[in-house]
Design a protein that fits this description.
about 200 residues, mainly alpha, Arc Repressor Mutant, subunit A, Tetracycline Repressor, domain 2, 2 domains, 11 helices
């Protein structure tokens, strides 16, 4: 999957074995995306991807348990960035404000003239299995995000307001996709979290 978040990340140096595993995983993901973009997701088989990456199908499934995951290979990193956006926000910044900034960094919102990313978005948009997986992928982060929101707000785990905010924050970029001005759409969506419906309604 092309890089979807421009925020910096820091990671501990990897050992030789971890570097080899990461390189294999990247080679598989790159081969899969190349084939998917050339011929379409449904017309490419797992064995063909394994052959293109010069690995066995067993090795492929060790890294990617389902075919859809080959397209969204940065899922764990995305959750880390999401939670860090809340935990590491500047002093005085609200949680909705931090989540809005994070959403604006997501390249899933807009391709910004990148031809390869435009092709990637078209692949996802035109493939029901990938659209469903993307939606489910983001919502899988909801529980972890709700817990962090509760921790940062001094609220008990499972607080319904934290759960609602987590779901809304994860849906906002998806709702903005395809809009004429997706960044403005995201800002307006998060204004609802920041200020409540009364403030939104007062604009009209």
């Amino acid at each position: 999957m092309p890089e979807t978040d421009t925020s910096p990340t820091t990671a501990a140096p990897m050992g030789r074995r971890e570097r080899k595993k990461a390189a294999t995983r990247q080679a598989i993901a790159d081969a899969a995306l190349r084939l998917f973009l050339a011929r379409g997701y449904d017309d490419v088989g797992i064995r063909e991807i394994a052959d293109a990456a010069d690995v066995s199908t067993t090795t492929l499934f060790k890294h990617f348990p389902v075919k859809e995951a080959l397209v969204f290979d940065e899922e764990a990193d995305q959750e880390t960035r999401l939670l860090c956006a809340v935990r590491d926000r500047p002093q005085g910044q609200s949680i909705p404000g931090a989540l809005c900034e994070h959403a604006l960094r997501l390249r899933l919102v807009t391709a910004d003239g990148d031809a390869r990313f435009t092709a990637f978005l078209r692949l996802v948009d035109n493939t029901p299995a990938l659209r469903d997986y993307l939606h489910a992928m983001w919502l899988r982060h909801a529980d972890a995000l709700a817990r962090v929101i509760a921790e940062e707000s001094g609220l008990p785990p499972g607080d319904p307001a934290c759960t609602a905010m987590a779901h809304f924050a994860l849906e906002a970029p998806r709702a903005a996709h395809g809009r004429d001005d997706p960044r403005e759409a995201i800002k307006r969506a998060f204004a609802l979290l920041e200020n409540g419906w009364t403030a939104i309604d007062s604009d009209h």
